[in-house]
Sequence to fold (157 residues):
Amino acid sequence: MNVTFRCPACDQPAIAQFGPESAEIACCRCGVRFPVPQGCVTQKQVTQCLICPSTELFIRKDFPQVLGVAIVVLAAVISSVFWYLHMPWWTYGTLFAAAFIDLVLYILVGNQLQCYRCQAQYRGVPGLDNHEPFDLETHEKYRQQAARLASASKEIK
Fold:
C-alpha cells in the first residue's frame, strides 16, 4: 500500500509505503515523519488519513482528470470540424469512439482512496467498497474551511 501526499512541512509531493504494522511514514523529500494512529490501518481497510486527522475519505477512479477532459475536448473539436464539413457520419463516429474509449478506461482503471481534507491519495489499499464515493457537500465543507483559514492567515499578516 502507498500514499501520495503533499508534505505539510516542505510543501512538496511525496510518496510513502505503509502497511498495517507501520508505526510512522516519512516524507521522501524532507524526511519529516508522521505517526500512524493506532488502528487506522488494518488488513481490511484504511479508516483515517495518515497525513491529517480526517476520517472522511472517498473512492474515485485512479485516472488523471486532465487527461479525461482532454479526450472529451479533442473529440468535441474533431467532431465539430466534421460537422462543419457536412460529414455527419464522421461526426457521430468520433463522438461514439470517444464514448467507447471512456467506457474502456472506466472498466480497466482501478480505484483509489482519497482524503477530502488534504487530498492524500491511497493506492493498493483493501476495503475500498467500505468507503463512499465523492460527496460534493463534504468536499464543499473542507473547501470552505481552507478558504476561511487562508483568509484568516492573510488578515494576521
Observations:
- The chain has two domains: 2-62+110-156, 65-107.
- DSSP finds three helices and eight strands in the chain.
